[in-house]
Amino acid sequence: MRKIVIAGNWKMYKDLEDVRAFCKAIASSLKTKDLGSVLPILAPAYPFLALMQRELADTLVKVAAQDVSAHAEGAFTGEVSAAMLSSLGLEYSIIGHSERRAHHNESNEIVREKLLLLMDNGIKPILCVGETLAQRDAGETQKVILDQLEGCLRNVTIYGAEDIMIAYEPVWAIGTGRTATGEQAQEVHRIIRTWLKNTYNDVLADELPILYGGSVKPENIAGLLAMPDLDGGLIGGASLKADQYLEMIDIALKSRK
């Protein structure tokens, strides 16, 4: 059975005091909770990675990076390498988020370079794919998703489901309050899983977690998790609030009972 992943992407929110307060609020609750097949992940801004690892060391929460440089090392001011993240003991990093693609002109090839560097350094990429509203309205959703998968994973060897996660994040549902219906999300998740089967193998396709991202919150996560090919959420705003994050973990736990 695939794990349910409750991954919070904090983007450029929270300062030091906020991070400490959040960690304190969830640590006591999660320290004694049996999470079963639920995997909680939190991705704060770079300055707080090591702090959160320390604050959440007694819990099962994994701390992830929000991005990584496409360069291994060098004179790249402001960049953070995969080797640096690995030296912190991080296990996960988001790449290919639509905001990086839109605001930093990241192509599939750049995302692929990041993915390879993460894998070379023992870090599992959380690879984001998704279409814009214009692309969806033009009936191009499947083409866009397949182009992104093929571009980002071209000639990339994936040995098993532990090597990578994929997150489907329709751009039109990120930060807009609009959410894809369970059926809309399931349709694209099935496209992704079928592509994995045809490109890799049945076992990988069946076991690899595919997350949904796009205005996920406690009010709608149960319906999304009811879909057969949806294995959790890459969650923005709702993950910034400790009570909502814990509530979504509880909902995920109940969804597999």
Summarize this, please?
The protein has 257 residues and is α/β, with parallel strands linked by helices. It has helices at residues 16-31, 49-55, 82-87, 98-103, 108-120, 133-137, 141-152, 182-199, 202-207, 218-225, 242-255; strands spanning 4-9, 38-43, 62-65, 92-95, 124-129, 165-168, 210-212, 232-235.
List the helices and strands and how they pair.
Elements (H helix, E strand, L loop, with lengths): L3 E6 L6 H16 L6 E6 L5 H7 L6 E4 L16 H6 L4 E4 L2 H6 L4 H13 L3 E6 L3 H5 L3 H12 L12 E4 L13 H18 L2 H6 L2 E3 L5 H8 L6 E4 L6 H14 L2
Parallel strand pairs: 1-2, 1-8, 2-3, 3-4, 4-5, 5-6, 6-7
Task: Describe the fold and architecture.
The protein is α/β, with parallel strands linked by helices and 257 residues long. It has one domain: Aldolase class I (TIM Barrel, Alpha-Beta Barrel), CATH 3.20.20. It is 43% helix and 14% strand. The chain contains 11 helices and 8 strands. An 8-stranded parallel sheet has the order 7-6-5-4-3-2-1-8. Strand 1, helix 1 and strand 2 form a beta-alpha-beta unit. Helix 7 packs across helix 8 and helix 10 runs parallel beside helix 11. It starts with a strand and ends with a helix.
